[in-house]
Amino acid sequence: MKKRIALVTGGFTGESVISLKSAAVVDAILDRDRYDVFKILIYPGNWYHPTESGEQIPVDLNDFSITIGDEKTTFDGVFNILHGSPGEDGKLAGYFDMIGLPYTTCDALTSAITMNKGYTKAIVQDIPELFVARSVQLFEQTPENETRILKELRLPLFIKPNNGGSSIGMSKVKDPSELSEALEKAFAEDKQVLVEEFISGREFSIGVFKSRGEITVLPATEIVSSKEFFDFEAKYQPGITEEITPGRMSEEEVARVNRIIEQVYQKLNCKGAVRIDYFLEYETGKFYFVEINTVPGQTETSLISQQVRAIGMEVKDFYNLLLDELWDED
What are the names of the required cofactors (predicted)? Predict the structure, then answer.
């Protein structure tokens, strides 16, 4: 008998447009021989299943069910592809935990912690061979921020919303005169802002997932952008960024990166597939942790799919492995 899967998308933030694109790709690939798939869109005050005729069937939040005609449908599991809040910050995970519905992404605590870039760095920074850029975490926009930043950190700097994603609200600052505008841009997206020293190095993004008790680290993708940094446009508009999978690393670098990535996954108690961004510093080759994405994109230009294919696996089979974990844990 087929499992009924809720494909959850939408969201409360600017990343919702990416969630919809990711969901369209996942919806087209999921194995219909194994699953009946129902897309569920989640917006503030409006959770619904869109029918082919355009009707919006409301979700009963008591048990996350939908009723089409006289037939009530409950779900065996959730494929979560909702980027940002509430799908990536732990809110949705906490709700699913309360009603006993398994889902493909990290639990509520891990999701909430990893959404906060500063807190995540504090947890992983003592992993052997892993380095983090010096940073300042700001909790409110005050006139003293610029003075503190220039006193404690060296230019150039990355300024980013601490709980954001898709590089929305992010800036690179090379001159003190650029600080004010960059801080305003970041605080417009979040109440917390992270200011980091720029690491000069090769940029990579790597997927990792757990299935059948084993952690699999995928081949890293090297990011070569024609832009100043891997921003929203570079991530989601084809042609701006060259993505090399597998990335150009020596055998020693691959082995070291894989050791570090597996430890990050374990230390943060991750579940399902996550993607971790890092730099290898030019002069030293040191591994600098940037951030972790617990609901990585699945759009046509996304990195996880490239990495899955690089190990000779079909993306459909990869999704099957993620969903199999839901019931293996029962």
Answer: Mn(2+); Mg(2+)
